[in-house]
Amino acid sequence: MSDIKAEAGENPGKTAHHARPPSGQTYVELALLVPLLLVMLAGLVEVGFVVFGYLNLLDLTREAARFASVRDFESATAGEASLDECANNTLDYYKDTACFFIDPELNPYVPISNTNYADVVVTVFTVSSSGSITSTNIIRHPDADGWSLYGDNWKKDCDGNTIRDEPFFTDEEIKENFISGAPNNRGYVLVEAYVCYDQMLHFPIISEVIPSPFRLHAYSMMPAPEAIPTPTDIASP
Question: Which listed residue, 27, 30, 123, 158, has the most CB atoms within 10 A of its CB?
């Protein structure tokens, strides 16, 4: 009869298992894991900021190169670009190209200033060749170093130390990128942007591995018909 009186759902043949409270080992593992996860999360966020800045800088070089590629590079004056010159309607080739970087309406995300060793370099190439790479002649405008927004910041690192004395792309490197079968006479414009990126989070462990600030360099090159060399007429005797 005692079996009949057993309550429904009761199973006297099995021993009830009770949940055990977390042991000290669990808390130790959690304490070791959480800092690692925080470092990984901070690293991902910082990388996201870097990629965002670089892609914006790259887009600016593309827009500036596209603008410069269809304009006369000889319509230019000496001096540094300014926002006042960006507002007028007179073409000033190099300065107007730099406006894509210094005008906050065109560039709201990537700060470009002389104080943080940023720079913009615009170089026009006139290429003439008799058919072979060795016979290719390259003339740079307005001079061998190109036009620089802030003088020579492109030669420096983010601490102001001079680290280079020649353009980022040498003539030999330019020639290596020529496509076989292309016209012998060509014109190109190269727009480069140099920016010192300062970390957003300044997470201690990340800052020990990656310097802050560090240099970002983006560039775009496009054909420039105005720079194509034209034959010089020979006067008849």
Answer: 123
